[in-house]
Write a structure and sequence with these properties.
Blueprint lengths: L1 H26 L19 H4 L18 H8 L8 H11 L19 E5 L11 H5 L3 E5 L8 H4 L5 E4 L12 E4 L4 H13 L10 E2 L2 H11 L9 H12 L2 E5 L28 H13 L4 E3 L3
Parallel strand pairs: 1-2, 1-6, 2-3, 3-4, 4-5, 6-7
Length: about 300
Amino acid sequence: MKSKERAIVSLLCATTICVSWRGFRSCSPPQDQRPCACERCLSKDDPCFMKRFNKSVEPFLSANYNLSEDDFNWWKRLQHEKGNFRTFRATVARLFLVIPLSPDVLEPSPDRCRTCAVVGNSVNLRRSHYGPLIDFHDIIIRMNAGVIKGFEADVGTRTTHRVMYPESSVDLDNTTHLVLAPFKILDLEWLTKALTTGFKGRSYAPVMVLNPAFIRYVHHTWLENKGTYPSTGFLALILALHMCDEVSVFGYGADSDGNWSHYWEKIRNKKFKTGGHPGNTEYKLIQELDQQQKLKFYTGF
């Protein structure tokens, strides 16, 4: 009788282990079935995150991408563009005569962990000593006129991608990808001229242009149409979620007094906020993504 009881107990234990193992495997697929080699990959298993994150959205324009007229009409209202859809398409066609036909991106792989550092321009970077940590990442995205020289200990030394628009443009070396954030047809014309007649005497690594449909997606899906349109910094952050498997975020948010200022400047206008950008909404979303472990947010001081 006792031997029969032991057999039943053994059978129950074996069944429990098998059920538990199947449950574990359904949550944590084997390495060769995972989309990346990181400890944690962006996953469709998280319904809260996937409610916003749309993998099918094309972040960059390419020669084969056809922007819809509806997306164009939304985009043209951002800065009161007067050109029509035909003018836009002709301008894009001319642009792809001088830039690569498709974006130069690091593709996902089960045996690779693509790490991104998104480096904002907040004064919170000052005295942070994040420089070595930032430089450790595969892809380092900066935006606009973010200064490196003199601040290397806090912001690092490397840049692989710089997101900017013409009014905030800086000279780049030939190892840094220019990622243009266009808000009007004139921005696309500026890029064509910059690459054909020269821009401050330097050449660029492969150039990439943010898709107006991607800008709309960030504004509508992520920011729920708050503000006029997303900040360059927030566009860069969502872009990183689409380009990388692990994302670290540095240099975002207002200072301890609520001022939105740059780490390389001494603030003069202490009433300056974020213009048409929903800064507080963007900051809260970054905090939320950090809590969901979809990115790592380094707040500074």
